[in-house]
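Weekly sync, protein design subgroup
Attendees: M.S., D.O., the rotation student, P.L. (late)

Item 1: inverse folding check
M.S. brought a backbone from last month's batch and wanted to see whether the design step gives back something sensible before we order anything. D.O. pointed out we never logged the input encoding, so this time it goes straight into the notes. Structure tokens as presented (173 positions):
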């Protein structure tokens, strides 16, 4: 499956279980609180979020999603691994704009209209997710391949494992 996230703010991208993700934070949230919220939801397995650029560069990310494959990728910009739960036979790729609007307003949904186009249909269960970034937006260069910017590989596993303590590749602490 291939997607292009060309709308909105893509400085952070999330892979979300929209059925279980608790999106609202506060009408006056601040970045550290929002990042803490993402981390707490990652611990529950409802979202995996990554900071895509250190400089805040918006980019139309070409994302490839693969299911059920074990991969060895020798060259890349960044790589992360986490676990997510699928409960409604779908996940969504969403951008920072979607996540922040839903964090600020209780009547906003994840996914929003743009994110709804980035639906990944798959069986319910637990998935190990390997996220490999090939494009460095801050330096405008590729490593490994220039055919995709980001590879999301989902492998169904028997049990959920603990996710990292924070947003992947986040420079804010």
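Designed sequence read out in the meeting:
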């Amino acid at each position: 499956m291939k997607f292009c996230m060309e709308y909105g703010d893509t400085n952070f991208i999330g892979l979300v279980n929209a059925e279980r993700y608790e999106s609202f934070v506060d009408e006056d949230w601040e970045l550290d609180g929002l990042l803490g919220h993402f981390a707490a939801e990652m611990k529950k397995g409802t979202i995996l979020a990554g900071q895509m650029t250190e400089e805040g560069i918006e980019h139309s990310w070409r994302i490839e999603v693969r299911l059920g494959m074990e991969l060895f990728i020798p060259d890349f910009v960044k790589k992360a691994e986490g676990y997510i739960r699928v409960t409604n036979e779908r996940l969504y790729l969403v951008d920072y704009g979607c996540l922040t609007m839903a964090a600020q307003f209780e009547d906003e949904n994840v996914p929003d209209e743009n994110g709804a186009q980035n639906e990944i249909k798959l069986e319910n269960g637990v998935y190990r997710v390997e996220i490999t970034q090939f494009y460095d937006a801050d330096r405008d260069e590729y490593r490994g391949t220039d055919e995709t910017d980001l590879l999301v590989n989902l492998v169904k596993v028997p049990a959920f494992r603990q996710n990292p303590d924070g947003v992947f590749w986040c420079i804010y602490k």
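Discussion: Residues 2-157 form a domain with the Substrate Binding Domain Of DNAk; Chain A, domain 1 fold (CATH 2.60.34.30). The chain is about 15% helix and 35% strand.
Action: P.L. to compare against the previous round before Friday.
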